[in-house]
Design a protein that fits this description.
By secondary structure, the chain is α/β, with parallel strands linked by helices. It is built from 3 helices and 5 strands; from the N terminus they run E-H-E-H-E-E-E-H. It has helices at residues 18-34, 59-78, 137-140; strands at 6-8, 39-41, 85-93, 108-116, 119-125. Strands 1-2-3-4-5 form a 5-stranded mixed β-sheet, with helices on one face. Helix 1 packs parallel to helix 2. The termini are far apart.
Length: 156
């Protein structure tokens, strides 16, 4: 029976430090590879830091996060880590979102991505955005399909 060794990289990131956080992902993926892991898992918003707050409202920062994610996938492969699946959090965007009152104009999404073989293989966005206590995620993020609340057959 085949075995999969999973590395849980419970590391801290720095809000806004895309290059530094990407370097941390590479460093800890090297550590995971050294211990025989085939999958390395990183925290929510690892690439951007959390809580990202108003940076999510800047389209240029969302663009930079997406660009860094693609660069990170290529860097992992260039450093011989392309055969390890890496799941990390980043700041993405709902590119097809039409601007609406009460929605973040950047279309930012709290996303996760699977990196493998030098590519961003698949991405997903957080569906359940907390909006209580210290959380104000409805202010910063949109759910997949651009919906806020209620039911939608596009948001499962």
């Amino acid at each position: 029976m085949a075995k999969l060794r999973i590395a849980l990289a419970q590391v801290n990131s720095t809000v806004g430090d895309l290059a530094g956080n990407a370097a941390t992902i590479v460093e800890w993926t090297h550590r995971a590879a050294g211990r025989g892991a085939g999958l390395a898992l990183f925290p929510e918003m690892m690439l951007t830091g959390y809580p990202v707050e108003d940076l999510a409202l800047r389209a240029s920062f969302v663009d930079a996060s997406i660009s860094m994610l693609n660069d990170l996938a290529a860097r992992l492969a260039a450093e011989g880590l392309g055969g390890i699946a890496v799941v990390t959090g980043y700041l993405g965007r709902d590119a097809g979102l039409a601007p609406r009152v009460g929605m973040p104009v950047s279309g930012a999404q709290d996303g996760s991505a699977l990196l493998y073989g030098g590519q961003v293989v698949v991405t997903s966005a957080k569906h359940h955005l907390p909006n209580y206590g210290v959380f104000d995620e409805y202010r910063y993020f949109v759910r997949p399909g651009g919906h806020r609340g209620g039911r939608s057959d596009r948001c499962l």
